[in-house]
Amino acid sequence: MKIIILGAGQVGSSTAESLANEGNDITIIDQNPILLERLQEHLDIRTVVGFAAYPETLLKAGVEDADMLIAVTHNDEVNMVACQIASSLFNTPKKLARVRATDYLEYPALFNLDAIPIDVSISPEQLVTEYIADLIEQPDTLQVLNFFEGLAQLVAVKIDHGSDMDGRSIEDLLALLPKVQMRVAAIFRNEQLIKPDGGASLQADDELFFLAKKQQVRDLVKVFKKDYQPYQRLVIAGGGHIGKQLAQRLEQDHHIKIIEHDESRARTLAGELHSSLVLHGDVGDANLLKEEQINKTDVFCAVTNDDEANILSAMLAKRLGVRKAFSIISKASHVDLVEGTSIDIAVSPAQITIGTLLRHVRRGDVVTVHSLRQGAAEAIEIVAHGDKQTSQVVGRRLDELRLPASATVGALLRDGQIFFAHKEIQIQSEDHLVIFIANQQDVDAVEKLFQVGFEFL
Predict the structure, then answer these.
(1) Which range marks the domain in which residue 248 is found?
(2) Residue 318: which CATH number?
(3) Are residues 161 and 94 in the same domain?
(4) Which end of the chain is flanked by fewer CB atoms within 10 Å, N or C?
């Protein structure tokens, strides 16, 4: 597939790397030649220096025969105009754009062929808000990913020393919770993948991924965590779009305080929120955090636009006794920097956004894509089509699938009913399957497996 990416920032460069590694023909446009040179040093891609919305720049990038345009510059208006030009002048088949401003997103009628021809608009702020809210609603998890329109969740959890499952097997887990339906997708121990068969022994500090129905996730998490407690008291550092949306979603069931440094913005938030307490102050002020009893708070969530402020305030809150510290971190280098520090969860907007972008690029009928472990792994929801003659999966049992070694089927959805994977399940046309792929390099092989032959088409 020939794809043009506008913007060589964190999202654009990471998307280019993922798509180039899968054999796509990638051209990336940016005004910063240094960024483009760095990308070309380790990726087999073309680069064009120029203003992304100019027709001449798009022509240099080969827009005339491009299959897709992905507009992820830092400017909403540039992204939208570029999609308009690609459609009006060059009839580009598919156009994806990052749109951050809520003023645009509140009017979805803007994005259609008769107005601004964007096929898919992506709001990083909305995606990040949903991601953090899921982490708070499922306490003591490292990652929570939705599948089957929210009916099932893939959850990452770290096994505590002295928990019910420390030193026991997956078979013991099934015996301990006989009424809970689930599937262990992967076990990582010291960064090494452990095959998740029934006899696999679990150890403290293992990172375990399991798939379960949403309403049963908490029962499962409890057996891996020694002192499991729901989150009740939250402090949100930053009252921007994400901070506001997060408070609006959670304030009905949680006690929320927001710290906002801009007095005018703080007053506006106080008038728009119902039960959340809005404080005017500095998120890095130790005295303020002590006054607000941060040591009795369950989650400190740093969501300002400043990586350094997020990292330092989250570390400070943790040192002052907060139970869990979350921090949004935009720069990839900063994400690596905080690994092993007191910050419990580093949230990367780029990785979350990339998953949504990849859903629209993948081969086959891919419903959902989630990037895991900083892009090293993926979880996808994919639909099986065809029949036994035209498909490599339809009409075959799960143990007959020629999946790569790193790929595991977690569950399938058929006519609204979830079936958790076991070897005797036979795949039918229109089944939705959740597949965990521990090695990102195997994604291409999985997608090819689900493609139908020409006879079906």
Answers:
(1) 233-347
(2) 3.40.50.720
(3) no
(4) C
